[in-house]
């Protein structure tokens, strides 16, 4: 099964599905045991916010040990752009991630952060080395948060599959998070594993912080008008960040 990304879909979308309202809500402690280390695997800079920016705030407040693994540096965000060449993005995007984490209230000196250095936009060709790379950092009692393996963005899907393999090998618990999935046509709602879905509620302050963190990615908000390249951070993602919950597949 494969869901293709659709940035310009018109309503109704999966996000409008009645199934979403039926997804049960659970407390964070039901998914992540007190004191457990949480490993967030972000395919690109910014995915850590869109996946679980609200959860990161909650986990930090509860003083869970946190490990962030940034698989790529976001350098292929705007192919062919002279405004945003890969050499600039490879420096700017990690800086924007650091600022986004600060806006979420995370203390960087208490966060372990690993940069994978894998090629942005080519993770399908690097899936096995990626899985082996992740395996080196995972422990049996870890809880891993990453993009769903059927999210519809090739890099997201590859990271989801590689993480699943690494978790199976290490014994870590995997929680997958749909990001771009919600912006597919409503007719595709049958592809969603609703039985695995759970909501974690966010309060008003958590939502505001998540939105503030998303806006730390100035490179994602600008695009390259000269080449007709739209901003990478599409309005639908910002709108989703306003929702009073985050959703995971268990």
Share of helical residues: 25-40%
Label the structural class: alpha/beta
Let me know the number of strands: 7
CA gyration radius, whole angstroms: 17 Å
Q: Could you name the CATH homologous superfamily?
A: LmbE-like
User: What is the CATH first-level class name?
Assistant: Alpha Beta
Q: How are strands sequenced across the largest beta sheet? A: 3-2-1-4-5
Percent of residues in beta strands: 5-15%
Protein name: LmbE-like protein
Organism: Pseudomonas batumici
Core attributes:
LmbE-like_dom_sf, alpha/beta, globular, 7 strands, Rossmann fold, GlcNAc_PI_deacetylase-related, two-stranded antiparallel sheet, 9 helices, five-stranded parallel beta sheet
Structure write-up:
- This protein is an alpha/beta fold.
- It has a single domain, classed as LmbE-like (Rossmann fold, 3-Layer(aba) Sandwich), CATH 3.40.50.
- The protein is built from nine helices and seven strands, in the order H-H-E-H-E-H-E-H-E-H-E-E-H-H-H-E.
- It has helices spanning 18-22, 28-31, 47-61, 86-103, 127-135, 154-170, 204-214, 218-222, 235-240, and strands at residues 38-42, 66-70, 112-115, 143-147, 173-177, 197-201, 245-249.
- Strands 3-2-1-4-5 form a five-stranded parallel β-sheet, sandwiched between helices. The chain has a two-stranded antiparallel ribbon with strand order 6-7.
- Helix 4 links the parallel strand 2 (66-70) and strand 3 (112-115).
- Helix 3 crosses helix 7 (204-214), helix 4 packs antiparallel against helix 7 and helix 5 (127-135) packs across helix 6 (154-170).
- Residues 1-9 have low confidence and may be disordered.
């Amino acid at each position: 099964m494969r869901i293709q990304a659709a940035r310009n879909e018109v309503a109704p979308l999966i996000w409008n599905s009645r199934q979403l309202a039926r997804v049960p809500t659970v407390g964070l402690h039901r998914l992540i045991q007190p004191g457990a280390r949480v490993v967030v695997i972000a395919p690109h800079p910014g995915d850590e916010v869109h996946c679980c920016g609200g959860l990161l705030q909650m986990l930090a407040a509860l003083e869970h040990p946190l490990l962030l693994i940034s698989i790529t540096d976001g350098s292929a965000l705007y192919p062919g752009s002279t405004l945003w060449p890969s050499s600039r993005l490879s420096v700017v995007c990690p800086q924007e991630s650091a600022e986004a984490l600060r806006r979420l209230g995370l203390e960087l000196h208490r966060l372990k952060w690993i940069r994978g250095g894998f090629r942005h936009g080519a993770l399908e060709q690097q899936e096995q080395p990626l899985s082996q790379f992740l395996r080196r950092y995972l422990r049996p009692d870890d809880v891993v948060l990453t993009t769903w393996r059927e999210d519809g963005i090739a890099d997201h899907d590859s990271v989801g599959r590689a993480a699943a393999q690494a978790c199976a090998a290490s014994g870590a618990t995997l929680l997958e998070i749909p990001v771009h999935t919600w912006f597919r046509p409503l007719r595709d709602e049958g592809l969603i594993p609703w039985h695995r879905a759970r909501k974690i509620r966010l309060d008003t302050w958590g939502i505001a912080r998540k939105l503030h963190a998303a806006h730390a990615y100035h490179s994602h908000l600008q695009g390259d008008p000269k080449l007709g390249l739209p901003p990478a951070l599409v309005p639908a993602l910002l709108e989703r960040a306003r929702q009073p919950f985050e959703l995971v597949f268990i």
